[in-house]
Amino acid sequence: MRIGVVTFPGSLDDRDAARAVVRGGGQAVALWHADADLRGVDAVVLPGGFSYGDYLRAGAIASIAPVMSSVVQAARGGMPVLGICNGFQVLCEAGLLPGALVRNDVRTFVCRDQRLRVEDATTAWTSAFEEGQEVVVPLKNGEGGYNADQRTLDELEGEGRVVFRYLGGNPNGSQRDIAGVRDASGRVVGLMPHPEHATEPGYGPTEHGGGASGNGTDGLGFFTSVLQALASA
C-alpha cells in the first residue's frame, strides 16, 4: 500500500513518518505541499513539526496549500488521513476535524513521553489497539491544547469520536484531556502526540515500562492499522 507523507516548509517529522510507514509494512510516497497531485496514494499522513504561516495561526496557511485541496477531496471520498501534531492543526483548519489547537495553558513548549488511553480502536488508524489500552508515545508541542465549544465536545463524546485521552496529567490544557479525535467515518484521525517516534525498538519511549509494547514501539500500531484497513476495504 502506498502511503503519502506531505512535506510543508518547516516540517520536521516527515522523514520520521515515512520511516514509520515503512516499518509498518507500507510504501512511503513523498508529497509536496505545493503540488496537488497525490500520486495515486492509498492514504495520507500529515506529519508534525511546523508549517509556513504558523505565525498567523498554527496550520492556517498550510490548510489552503494546493495539496490540501486534494487531501480534503480524497478524505471526503473515504481515503484514510492521519494528522500528527501540526498535521492535526492542519486538519482542524481545513475543516476535516472539529475544534482547534491553541497555545498550551502552561505557556511553554512541552516535550515528554506521554501516556495515552485508547478510547476508540475502530478507526482506520487504531484497529491494532484495544479500547482502554494504555500506550506511551512522545509529545512535543507549544500549541497543543485541544479546544472546542461545549456542544462540539458533547457531540464528540456522545458519538464516540474521542480517539485518545491524556493520562498522568494534562500536558497542555486540552479540554476533557483530549489528545486525539476522528471524523464521523473513522478514517480521518488527528492527534497531538507523535506515534512516528515510537515504532522501532531502542528508539521509542521506555518510561512507564515502554507502554503496552514494553520496548518503545507503541506507535507502530497506527501504521499497521491503516494497512489492514486498506487491505480489508
Structure, described:
With 233 residues, this protein is α/β, with parallel strands linked by helices. The strands form 2 sheets. It has a 9-stranded mixed beta sheet with strand order 2-1-3-4-11-10-9-6-7, with helices on both faces. A two-stranded antiparallel sheet has the order 5-8. Strand 10 and strand 11 form a beta hairpin. It starts with a strand and ends with a helix. Helices cover 22% and strands 25% of the residues. It contains 5 helices and 11 strands; from the N terminus they run E-H-E-E-H-E-H-E-E-E-E-H-E-E-E-H.
Descriptive key words:
single chain, 233 residues, alpha/beta, nine-stranded mixed sheet, 5 helices
Strand share of the residues?
Answer: 15-25%
> Would you list the SSEs in sequence order as H and E?
EHEEHEHEEEEHEEEH
Query: Strand tally, please?
Result: 11
What oligomerization state is this entry in?
Answer: single chain
Sheet with the most strands?
A: 9 strands, mixed
Query: What percent of the residues sit in helical stretches (DSSP H or I)?
Result: 10-25%
Distance between the termini: 12 Å
Number of H- or I-type helical stretches = 5
Shape: globular
Uncertain segments are: none
Radius of gyration, in Å, reads: 16 Å
Q: Which structural class fits the helix and strand makeup?
A: alpha/beta
Strand order of the largest sheet: 2-1-3-4-11-10-9-6-7
- What is the average per-residue confidence, as pLDDT, rounded to a whole number? 95
